[in-house]
Specification:
This protein has about 575 residues and is α/β, with parallel strands linked by helices. It has helices spanning about 45-50, 50-55, 75-90, 95-110, 120-130, 135-150, 155-170, 200-205, 210-220, 225-240, 260-285, 295-305, 310-325, 345-360, 365-390, 400-405, 415-430, 435-440, 450-460, 465-485, 495-510, 520, 525-565, and strands at about 5, 15, 20, 30-35, 35-40, 65-70, 90-95, 335, 340-345. Helix 6 runs antiparallel to helix 7 (about 155-170), helix 7 packs across helix 9 (about 210-220) and helix 19 crosses helix 20.
């Protein structure tokens, strides 16, 4: 940052018994109160340059110290002391960090050219035009300081700073010659490396949300930058000011933590500020496709859930995230509940999926249909991984899990490997499920849509119901016969396969437990069913194989007999 030095005398201000004074042989004849600080100073240097003090002290007696209250001076004690030191000729340094309070205090004290030539206001205005507005970080620092002190009311500083910042943002990256902040992962600064297009996004993320919105809106109005670049600026700002609830953010009073009323008030104030930032960022998202990523939208949805954003904000995020769900990962769908960060809002994830599926109900061109088909394959994998994560919750109700699994239509899943892993995880984490619930779960799996490796794993999985294992064995038998390439052997009828497997499962699983074996009392019945299932299923497979071979031999004998008759 650039700075300006004024005055040459050494600093002789000191504090004694909570009173600020300046070392001098002349007794103080001016007492000034600024908030809680008392100053004992002299009329001679101050009244020469301060029009306000001239007016306040015009009717006073020269013999007594004059008390003056300046509690409403902008910038407080520090700004007043800078102006006082300037009057005494004491050396001061002005930079973008203290320029704004010094300027506002000098204007308040009427330290203008009308009062004295070469006064402080004129010098600060020259510094502002020639140094602050010419620098990148200087403009940002001055803008932020002016906003925090006076908001939009100080337009003589705020608007020129905004114009200077926007002008620099719109310059081609090749013309950027000043230093900037850029800390993206994987980016290392090398000599002569080209300036990235989003070089400006991190520095303006330091601004308050209202000023940030003004800067970004002005940049968008120029229509010189692509929407994804605007979206990147929003992403950087949100990541800086909106912590992700998925990673360790807890609401006030959660998890039984005792908090004082002041701490709770501070936490509520923080959440209110985050809510304001979130809702402002959401309104600024460009409507152009691809301006922000699906992962970023889901992150904003998690924050919206945590801070209690308006229903319209949540609805907009759900709609936009649904249209870009194929860009997400399974972890992005984990949306913690505000009251319990260990529990997830599955309703929000379900709503996002519904908005994604709604796209397929609209007519589309062939190219768009192909793109949507690829997107569906990605979403299926994402959602099945999400189901697997949800299944780890030991208290997650089975009815809700089944409803979630059925959110995707049957035609969407080309394979059921992911669904199988999710259901197997649920069975593993819920060992006390009833037989009916296990059947209800496994009925969702289409055994013909399992890959050979997963099918083999499922056959040997003792958590699977017997009905499912028998169906898997029949499917495996069909695949084996089909792979043999025999045209003489017809595959088993699918209806009979399911009928037999269903009857076998019902007969075996509903069979009353034997009463003469004491070992059943001490051994889980899941193991008994698994042994019976494997033995009976193997016997059934051998029976199918034998009947298939007999049919093949019979047909070959008939063919040979017909051949001999023709030869005769």
């Amino acid at each position: 940052m650039k700075y300006m030095k004024l005055g040459t005398k050494p600093d002789t201000f000191y504090t004694e018994q909570a009173v600020r004074s300046v070392a001098s042989d002349i007794p103080a004849d001016l007492i000034i109160h600024v908030n809680n600080t008392k100053y004992q100073l002299h009329k001679f240097p101050l009244l020469l340059k301060c029009g306000l003090l001239q007016r306040l002290c015009s009717d006073t007696d020269d013999g007594e110290p004059v008390p003056v209250a300046l509690d409403d001076i902008p910038g407080g004690e520090e700004a007043f002391e800078l102006c006082a030191k300037f009057c005494y000729g004491i050396a001061i340094s002005i930079s973008a960090s203290n320029f704004v309070p010094a300027m506002l205090a000098a204007r308040f004290l009427r330290m203008t050219e009308h009062i004295a030539k070469g006064n402080l206001v004129a010098k600060l205005e020259t510094f502002f035009d020639s140094c602050v507005l010419q620098g990148w970080r200087d403009s940002i620092a001055a803008l932020q300081a002016a906003w925090r002190i006076s908001g939009w009311s100080e337009s003589r500083i705020v608007q020129p700073c905004i114009d200077s910042i926007v002008e620099k943002i719109l310059l081609p990256p090749s013309k950027v010659s000043w230093s900037y902040t850029y800390t993206r992962p994987g980016y290392t600064k090398r000599p002569h490396q080209s300036v990235p297009k989003d070089w400006w996004t991190e520095d303006i993320s330091e601004l308050d949300i209202e000023v940030f919105r003004s800067v970004v809106s002005t940049v968008r109005a120029a229509r010189m930058l692509p929407p994804p670049l605007i979206g990147e600026a929003l992403h950087v700002y949100a990541c800086k000011h909106l912590p992700d609830p998925l990673y360790g953010v807890s609401a006030p009073g959660v998890n039984g933590q005792a908090q004082s009323s002041s701490t709770t008030a501070d936490a509520e104030e923080t959440i209110a500020k985050q809510r304001r930032v979130l809702e402002t960022v959401v309104t600024m998202i460009p409507g152009d496709a691809g301006s922000v990523t699906g992962r970023f939208l889901l992150r904003l949805l998690r924050v919206a859930n945590y801070v209690g954003a308006s229903s319209s904000t949540r609805a907009q995020l759900i709609r936009q995230a649904g249209s870009q769900l194929d860009e997400a990962k399974a972890v992005d769908l984990l949306i913690p509940l505000p009251s319990d960060k260990q529990a997830y809002d599955v309703g929000a994830a379900e709503a996002v999926l519904e908005h994604f599926l709604a796209q397929f109900q609209r007519p589309a061109a062939a190219d768009e249909r192909r793109r949507m088909s690829v997107a569906m394959e990605k979403v299926v994998r994402i959602f099945d991984e999400y189901l697997q994560t949800i299944a780890l919750d030991g208290e997650f109700p089975i009815g809700k899990f089944v409803d979630l699994a059925e959110c995707l239509p049957d035609i969407a899943r080309n394979d059921h490997d992911g669904l199988y892993h999710a259901i197997d995880t649920y069975l593993k984490e819920h060992p006390d499920l009833s037989k009916a619930d296990k059947k209800r779960l496994c009925r969702l799996i289409d055994c013909r849509k399992l890959s050979p490796d997963v099918r083999a794993q499922a056959i040997s999985n003792d958590r699977m119901p017997l009905r499912t294992i028998v169906q898997l064995l029949f499917v495996e038998q069909e695949r084996t016969i089909g792979a043999g390439g025999s045209h003489a052997v017809a595959p088993p009828n699918r209806a009979s396969v399911h009928d037999v497997s269903g009857l076998t499962a019902i007969d075996r699983e509903d069979e009353p437990a034997p009463t003469d074996h004491k070992s059943d009392v001490h051994r889980p019945r899941r193991g008994v069913h698994a042994e019976r299932a494997q033995g009976e299923a193997a016997a059934m497979a051998r029976s199918l194989s034998a009947s298939t071979k007999t049919a093949a031999r019979t047909e070959r004998t008939a063919e040979e007999r017909g051949s001999r008759l023709r030869n005769n």
